[in-house]
Specification:
Number of helices: 17
Number of domains: 2
CATH superfamily of the largest domain: Glycosidases
Largest sheet: 8 strands, parallel, barrel
CATH architecture of the largest domain: Alpha-Beta Barrel
Number of strands: 19
């Protein structure tokens, strides 16, 4: 695997301001006091005329500079209401600040826009409300607000000045229609499918519960050359986006078929090089000569953001369980810590990298949840958890990327992103992964099946929990074992892996790589398939088929002798 240098640096230029203000704000409630202390605007109204109320709210209780105002407010809620037509934001402040009038205003910004704390908000507000220490601002929800961030402000010396950082809507799932017939998996067993085996017993007999498929954007974007499947026009933000009708028809068939077979579909969105749609490539990634497999999404400007929003909206709406099947999980990009190869960006600043990626992740999350409330959206990492000790410029540590994305996501409001992991043995050709001792501390260099606690312990920490205080969804979206060293050894490795994941309450699924051997992998000694290239089944085939049935233990009992364990319980204890 290609691997990269990580340099820690601060992406947010206002960190110093935050540290300074944290001390200053303690004193602010007593600074510049004009009237006796009051808790909110309601108490000001008692026995006073409207004119007196307006004047006193304008004068406020504290006088602050624009820098002091910048972090004075705290947004405690930004959500769609049950009518699906009202957006409400709640702002709290220690006291009433002085400004030009009695109002607090609400502004909307694009995802890519950086709203700096000390600059005027040069646009029209979308809502306003009288000042209060707990102020609720409401406005009519518009479709374009789904991907925007919202900033409260006051009018100070003729300029609108922010009272807090921007925040995004917290509950896009409120917009989704209810889908009744969703596949309910009976186990965690998944597979990267061979499209040649669709509608054959070579697939249906396997009892696959989770299926995964790639969607490279170059395949679906643009006009159709096959007139049997006309170009699909999709209107978004006043612009028409074109999708390849033939390619989309293929995905329509695929996801409809998988849904009809009771499988949960996962789609991986990949941003490969596309000469026709250069706006999809991030400005820091615009270099075809590097030869990367995939490139960072363009989240740096309006053209790129709107194109990505249109793609996310189109795909998640189309595969929301209606006419064309259901994609219940979306993985955005591949192994993003390998940023020189799988999600190319020309930067060694992990915070810059994470900030740009997180915008794309949030866009797909909001699109998916607004169309199917139970959708899950992930980003993926490989097994290089903490192996880069600072001397390799080809990759970031996966652990550091997870921390950076989590930090960036929190800045505009927590949401329930998930983590897709690829805990391959090291090296990839190693099948008897249980024969080594693995570091199980947070600083473990490599993430494998034998030390999954390194990632689950991290995501169990308070600062990583989801909106409901739970550990985020974790899924193994790619992991395989070669049969080059023997088919029985491959089958034992798979069975042990399945039981480890089945016993782990934090991992939702195990999607095996792959159904059929791939020539380019076999040449590297990586014969991962259940079937050989000519579709001859391997020893693992019956093990895979039956492992989650009542006969599973019978089909896997050979595993214990290969592992050197007296019982499954003993073997599982090694991985704790």
């Amino acid at each position: 695997m290609d691997t990269g240098k990580m340099m820690k640096s601060s992406y947010n230029p206002y960190i110093f301001v935050v540290l300074v203000l944290s001390g200053l704000l303690i004193l602010l409630s007593g600074c510049g006091r004009k009237t006796p202390a009051v808790s909110d605007s309601v108490s000001w109204q008692s026995g006073k005329t409207e004119e007196e109320i307006e004047r006193e709210l304008t004068e406020g209780n504290v006088t602050m500079s624009r820098l002091q105002l910048a972090l004075y407010g705290k947004i405690t809620d930004c959500s769609l209401q049950s009518d699906k037509e009202t957006l409400a934001l709640t702002l709290t402040m220690p006291d009433i600040p002085k400004s030009d009038d009695a109002m607090i205003y609400l502004f909307a910004f694009e995802t890519y826009e950086e709203c700096t704390f000390t600059e005027e908000l040069k646009r029209e507000p979308i809502a306003s409300q009288r000042k209060s220490t707990e102020c609720r601002l409401e406005c009519a929800y518009q479709d374009e607000y789904l991907f925007k961030q919202f900033v409260p402000a006051v009018l100070l010396n003729g300029e609108y000045m922010p009272l807090s950082a921007g925040i995004c809507i917290s509950n896009p799932e409120m917009l989704a229609d209810t889908i009744e017939d969703c596949p309910q998996p009976k186990s965690k067993k998944g597979l990267l499918l061979d499209p040649q085996m669709l509608e054959t017993s070579l697939l249906t007999d396997l009892g696959v519960q989770y299926a995964i498929y790639n969607i490279p954007l170059s395949i679906i974007m643009g006009e159709t050359t096959d007139q049997t499947f006309p170009t699909i026009s999709y209107e978004y933000q006043g612009k028409t986006y074109l999708f390849n009708g033939a390619a989309i028809n293929g995905y329509d068939y695929l996801f409809s078929y998988l849904t009809s077979q009771g499988m949960n579909s996962t789609a991986i969105i990949l941003n490969d090089w596309n000469e026709t749609y250069p706006e999809l490539i991030h400005p820091l990634s615009d270099n075809k000569e590097v030869g990367a497999y995939y490139y960072a999404f363009n989240t740096a400007n309006q053209e790129g953001i709107h194109c990505l929003e249109a793609i996310a909206s189109f795909l998640t709406e189309r595969y929301s369980g209606k006419e064309h099947g259901l994609v219940s999980s979306w993985v955005i990009a591949n192994e993003i810590n390998q940023y020189k190869v799988w999600n190319y960006m020309d930067t060694d600043d992990i915070m810059v990298y994470a900030a740009e990626f997180e915008k794309a992740l949030r866009i797909f999350y909001y699109a998916a949840k607004s169309n199917y409330a139970d959708a899950k959206v992930y980003f993926s990492i490989d097994h290089d958890w903490n192996s880069n000790r600072g001397n390799d410029e080809k990759y970031f540590n996966a652990k550091e990327v997870v921390a950076a994305v989590n930090e960036m996501a929190g800045q505009k409001g927590n949401y329930d992103w998930g983590l897709a992991i690829h805990p391959y043995p090291n090296p990839l050709t190693k099948v008897n992964y249980w024969t080594e001792n693995y570091d199980k501390t947070p600083d473990a260099p490599v993430l494998t099946l034998m030390n999954l606690s390194t990632v689950t312990d991290l995501l169990s920490q308070e600062e990583y929990l989801d909106r409901n205080g739970n550990v985020r969804s974790i899924t193994v979206t790619e992991l395989g074992f070669t049969s080059a060293s023997g088919e029985k050894l491959q089958a034992a490795a798979f069975a042990y892996c399945y039981y480890i994941i089945e016993a782990n309450p934090y991992v939702d699924a195990f999607i095996m790589n792959r159904q059929t051997d791939a020539l380019e992998e076999v040449r590297q000694g990586l014969a991962f398939g259940i079937y050989e290239m000519d579709h001859t089944p391997k020893y693992i085939c019956d093990v895979y088929k039956n492992i989650d049935t009542d006969e599973g233990k019978e089909y896997t009992k050979f595993m214990l002798n290969i592992l050197g364990a007296e019982s499954l319980e003993e073997a599982l204890s090694w991985a704790k």
